[in-house]
Amino acid sequence: MGDKAAYYLVKALRTLPDTYFGNNHYMRSVMLETVAAVPGMCGAMIRHLKSLRSLKADNGWISHLLHEAENERFHLFLWLECLKPSTFQRLLILGVQGVFFNAYFTLYLFSPKTAHRMCGYLEEEAVISYTHFLDDIDSGKIPNGPAPRVAIDYYNLHPNATVRDTVLAVRADEAVHRDANHFLSDRIAIKKEDLLSEVREERDKHMAHRGTGSSSFA
């Protein structure tokens, strides 16, 4: 039930940028990233405080969520190299972020599984938005100018990289965040939240497989 509610809520929320920004992809991206950087920070903060209260290790969640939030924040400043928001747009960002932060924080307190599922759907909408961005570049509706310098440095792009290359890199990040949040929601659902133990198990399986393979080859 929570997963369906999260899905339809995200679909409903998408109508707002579709209506207001239309094909203004740069402003849409700025607004998107101011929202996308919130879930990771909320989740990390709540889990950090829980770890302190319970005197128990977090087992990999906090560092991952903080990295996600930082990556999304970088996306924001990357697009700000291409766009200077007006005073009204800055106020709009302030209002949207304030509402979304409090709503998502409350949701994560009561149902982290649903919160991560919602974030996964949000990231899927981000992938779709960046795909439309690429389509408009390819069709000539948006000039394919030089990539922002910060994007070239961050993603180690070619010095002659373009905006299209930047959009591809950012979209790949969003796809990773989408899959990661759905994975985290699934871990909560099956009550297997020790991410570090799972990583160790997979590593041990991989090493055992390599050992078996090398011995049989010999």
UniProtKB/TrEMBL annotation:
Free-text remark on how the cofactor is bound = Binds 2 iron ions per subunit.
Where is it located?
A: Membrane
GO BP terms: namely:
alternative respiration
Q: Per the entry, which co-factors are needed?
A: Fe cation
The entry's cellular-component GO terms read: membrane; mitochondrion; respiratory chain complex
Q: Does the keyword Transmembrane helix apply?
A: yes
Is Ubl conjugation given among the entry's keywords? no
Give the keywords, sorted: Electron transport, Iron, Membrane, Metal-binding, Oxidoreductase, Respiratory chain, Transmembrane, Transmembrane helix, Transport
For this protein, the record's Pfam families field holds:
AOX
Q: Could you say which residues bind Fe cation 2 here?
A: 72, 123, 174, 177
**Documented EC number(s):** 1.-.-.-
Question: What's a Gene Ontology MF term here?
Answer: alternative oxidase activity
Give the principal location in a single coarse category: membrane
Q: Which InterPro entries match?
A: AOX (IPR002680), AOX_sf (IPR038659)
Which residues take part in binding Fe cation 1?
Answer: 33, 72, 75, 174
Q: Which family does it belong to?
A: Belongs to the alternative oxidase family.
> Which named protein is this?
Alternative oxidase
> What is the originating organism of this protein?
Mucor lusitanicus CBS 277.49
